[in-house]
Automatic annotation (TrEMBL), chain B:
Region of interest: Disordered: 43-62
Superkingdom in the source lineage: Archaea
Membrane spanning stretches: none
Taxonomic source organism: Halorubrum persicum
Keywords, alphabetical: FAD, Flavoprotein, Oxidoreductase
Gene3D superfamilies assigned: FAD/NAD(P)-binding domain
Domain Glucose-methanol-choline oxidoreductase N-terminal: 241-337
Pfam family, one: GMC_oxred_N
All residue ranges annotated as the Glucose-methanol-choline oxidoreductase C-terminal domain in the record: 445-557
Record's protein name: GMC family oxidoreductase
UniProt entry tagged with the keyword Flavoprotein: yes
Amino acid sequence: MVTNRIDDWLSVMWQSLTSTGGLLLELVGVGPDVDPHTKVTFRAIGDAVMPETPGLAGELGPEHVSGGLAVDLDAFTVTYVDDGFQLGLPHLGPQGNIPIADPIAHLLDSAALTLVERGDNERDPDVDRALSLLGPDDPSPRAVEDVVGPFAKLSRRDRLRAIAIVDEFDVEFTPTDDDLFELDAGLVGQLVIGFMEMIYYSEWQGYDEFTQPPSRRSHPNDRSAVQSWRQTGFPGFADGYAALRGYVGTTDSPLGGGDTWATVDEAADVRIVRESGGFRENDYETSDYREPFPVESG
Amino acid sequence: MVEDSYDAIVVGAGGDGPVAAWKLAEAGLSVLVLEAGPFYGNEQWPRPNEDPGGEASSSAEDLSGDLLDEQFTTREFEMITKLVFGPADHERGFWFRKFPGDGAILQCAGVGGTTLHYTGCHPRAYPAAIDEQGHWPIEYADLIPYYQEVEEMCDVAPAPVTAKEELFFRGAADAGWELIEDLNVTEPGYRPQPNAITQPDERLHVDAGYDGDFTYPDVEGDTLALGNIAGNPHPRGAPYEEKAKKASNVSFVPPALRTGNVTIRPNAFVTDVVTVTPRGDTPTVAGVQFRDTWSGSVQQVDSEVVVLAAGAIETPRLWLNADLPANEWVGRGLTIHFGDNVMGLWDPDDLDEAIGSDVIDQHEGQDIAARFDYPGVGMLQTVGTAPGIGAILGFGASASGFAFQNDTPGEPWDTIGRLAGTELKRLLSDYRRMLQILVVSDDRPHQRNGVTVAPGVADEHGPIPIVNYEPSEGDRQRRDELARIAADILREAGASHVHRSDSPPTALHVHSTMRMGKVVDEACEAYDVDRLFVADHSVLANGVGGANPTNTGQALAARTGERIVERHF
C-alpha cells in the first residue's frame, strides 16, 4: 500500500487523462475505434503476459514458441474489456458498455512512471522496444512513435513490475463530474493478467468471429485450430470419457464395495472399489469442539 | 403471462429461490419468480442472448434438453462470458460492481443462478459451525430433514474416482489423514465429494472397454467430461431433467413448474420492494417493481408475501436501494470462504508409479470430486479445469505480486505469486500433469465486511453494490494452515513442484449478508418488514464452516418455504 503517494498518483493520473485529447469524447462513444496509444500499450501488455518464447523451442518443442501477439490476443483483449462491463447508461457508449481500454492504458503509463521514479526498473525504457512489437497491419513505427507511452517502453519484466504496482493502488478515480464512471485500480491487473491469460488458454482463438451472436459462432473444437491447446496438450471439449476408476471404500465402509481396482492405503484398508455405496447418516457430537485458531468478535 | 398479483413473489431463480418457490407452490400458493437473467433450455426463449423471446414460462413442457445442448456449448470462455452476472443481451457487458483489490465476485445470471456454474458439490455444513460457533439461532439438527429432502431431489451421492481423485486420496492417506464416511462431519479427514451429479454409467469404467458414444440414451448419468463450471449439459441428447448435473434449474425448477402454480419471469430485474404501513408502525410488504432488461419497461406486481432470493450481494443491495428500514446488519457480515489455490506438478515417472499413468488429465472426470474436511478451519478440494479457467484461477491473480518477485526459503511451496510470461508458458505446458487444490477457509462474519451502496455510483437498476472484504488475522491463519496441508498432500502424492497463488480475496462462495438472528428471524422473516422473507445464502448466519454452501442454502430455503405457509396462509 502506498497511501502517502496516492495524492501524487491521482494528480499524475488526472493530468494524464486530461492531457489526452479525445479521451472524454471516446468515453461517450466519439472518436477512433482504437486509439493508437491504446493499441501500442496493449501490444506491450500481450507481449509481456504471453510472450514469444524462442528459448522454449529446445526445451519443450517448436510449438511453444509463439505468443499472444501471433494470434492478435492484444486486439481481442481491447475489444473484450471495452465490451465487458456496463452500467446500462447509453450515453457512456454502445449498449451502455463502458470503454475502459484507454483508461487502462493510461493507468499503466502512470504505474510505469512510478516504477522508474522509484528506480525499480531493471532496464532503461526504450521506445524501439515498443515499436518492434508493431504488427504488419499496424501503423508504421514513425506514425506512432510520438504516442508510445512510458509503459510500452519498458522491458517485458519491468512491464509486469509496473502492473504489480497498479495492484498496490487501492484507489478509485472518477473522470466525470457526476461520478458515473469509476475504475478500481485492482481491476486493471485482473483484466490485463488474469483475463488475458484466460482468453489465451481458452478456446477463444478457434472462433471464426467471437463477436458474432452466440447462435452464429462456429468453433472447430480441434487442437490444430488453437495455438494454446497445442501448447498445453488440451484435446478440446469432449462429450465424455471412459475414465471411471470406481469409488472409495473399505471393507466395512458404506461408501463403496465390490471388486477392488486399487489399494489407496493398505494399513487403513482404503481402496478404490467397483461399486458405489452412500454416505452414513451418522450421529454426531460437537461438545468437545475447540477453535484451532483465534476468533475475533464482530 | 405475468398477472397483477400473486400469493408470493420470489426475487431470484438462483440456487435457492426455486426451492422456496417449489415449497410454496406445493402448498397451493400462486408464485411468481422474477429472475434478472435469461432462461436457458426453455422453448419460450430459443435465442435467449439475442432476442427478448417470450414473456414468462409456467409449464414444464417448455423445458427442452435439446435447447440446453445448443446453448450450453461447454466451451469455457464462451460459457463464462455467457453465464457471469449480466443482462441476457450478448452485446452488453457484465453488470458492474465494486470489489476491493484485484479479486472478483463470481455471480451468474439466469434461471439456475450461480448453480449454473457450480461444480455440483453438495456437502452439509459442519455441525460445529452451526451449533458451537455462536452465530446461529437454530440447531444443526433442525436442518437435517431438509438436507435429506434436498439430497434426494438432487441425486447427491459419493463422487466417482478418476485419476486425479485417486492421486489426491493417495496423498491424503500418505499424509496421515483418515477416510471420512459420514454426512455430518466433526473430525478432519478426506472423502469423496457428496456431489449433486447423477453418477456415471458403470460402462464408463476404464476396464470396461467402452467405445460407444457418450450421448443419451447410449449412456445415462454423468459422462466424466468435466465442464460443470461451463454449464454441463451432459449427457447430450438427454431430456432436460435427465441432465446429470442437478443445478437448481434441473433439480427444483421442473417440479415447481409441474405444480401448475408457478410462473417464472426471466429478464426481470427487481428494483423496488413496495411496502405499506397501515398501522403506522412496522411496514408490511405489498409487492415489487421490476424492470425488463431488454425493453427497459417497468412493472409492479402485488403479493401477500415477498421472498428475496437474489443472492448475498443483490439481496442487501435491493434492500438498501428500496429504502427499507435501516438495520445495522443489512449487507454486513459477508463471508466468502477466503480462498487460495495450491498447484502440484509431477514428473511422468512419479505419476506412473502413483496412478499407473504418466498423465493426470484433469479434464477427465468431474471438476471437483475429492475433498478434505477440517471443521473449524475449512476445506480443500481438488479442481480439474480446462486450461483457460485453470490459468485465471491458479495463476492469474495474487496478493503477493509476481512469482519472480518472491523467494520461498523454508516454505512448503517452491513458488508463490502470480505467473505470466515464460514461466507461465513453461508451467502450463505440463497441463496434463498438474493438479490444483482449492483452499476454502472458514472465514468468520465481521461487521466491517459486506455490501453497501452509494448514491451516484448507479446503473440502470440503481446504485451498484460496493463490496468490502478484509479478512481477520484468524481468517488468514486458517487459510495458511489449509494451504500448508494442501502442499503436504501434493508432496506426499509425489509432486515435484508446488506453486501457491496466495489469491487475493475472491468471492466464489458468497454468504451471510442478511444473517438469521440479525436481519431475519428464525423463520427467515425480516425483523423490520412484515411478510418479507429471505431465502438465499445471505441468511446463513456464518460461512457454514467452509463447506460448500449450496446444500445448506437450499435446505434452509425449503424450511423457509414451509414456515411462510405456516405463518401467513
